[in-house]
Amino acid sequence: MQVASYFKAMGKMFRLFCLGLFCHLLAGCAAQKTTDKPYHENLAAHRPKVILPSETSNNDTATQTKVVLVVAPTHNVNEKVDAVLDSIDRYNQVRKFVDGYTIQIYSGQNREQAMEAKKKMTSDLPEYTANLQYQQPKFRVTVGRYFTKLEAHPDLVKLRSSFTAAILVPEKIPVR
């Protein structure tokens, strides 16, 4: 009995779906207008006036008169942009660190395990340089300095083949 009521309910839902689809298609067709008149728009009033140089030819030589039209700028923003760029330049000269990322392959309190991780890193993947740091109370072995996560991702994938615990961590990168 329950199966029959289930199929009956599904049949009603299917009919409602078909009715909605038909109404949607009908409304979409009604919105389209077909006209025999083509659409035209006159943009001549907005086009800039161009004065072409006049050409005159005397025998084999052609002389051209060049008309130069000087336009005075009405909205000059160069001074404002220069001031903003100068302030950014001064800020960058004072700046010592930038936000970036590094790959951490080991973090723990055991110094011997940290040294083993660094040794394994130099033997398995010699193209990378491992850095051993002690930040109380733990040792960290990190690899590389990256400005974006996207830049670090290919190296992270390579390092995860040897170090399954390798993660990307935010770090301040010294400038210069």
What is the CA-based Rg, rounded? Answer: 36 Å
| CATH fold descriptor of the domain at 97-174 | Alpha-Beta Plaits
CATH class of the domain at 97-174: Alpha Beta
Q: Number of helical segments? A: 4
CATH hierarchy: architecture of the domain at 97-174: 2-Layer Sandwich
- Quaternary organisation of the protein chains: single chain
**Overall pLDDT level:** 80
- Share of helix, binned: 40-55%
Q: Which stretches are low in confidence, meaning pLDDT under 50 for 5 or more residues running?
A: none
Structural class: alpha+beta
- N/C terminus separation: 79 Å
State the major sheet. Answer: 4 strands, antiparallel
Lateral arrangement of strands in the main beta sheet: 4-5-3-6
β-strand number = 6
Write down the secondary-structure element order.
HEEHEHEEHE
- Residue share in β-strands: 15-25%
State the CATH superfamily name of the domain at 97-174: Sporulation related repeat
Overall form: flat
Care to describe what's here?
This protein has a domain of 78 residues: Alpha-Beta Plaits (2-Layer Sandwich). It has four helices and six strands; from the N terminus they run αββαβαββαβ. The strands form two sheets. The chain has a four-stranded antiparallel β-sheet. The longest helix is centred in the first third of the chain and has 30 residues. The N and C termini lie far apart (79 Å). The mean pLDDT is 80.
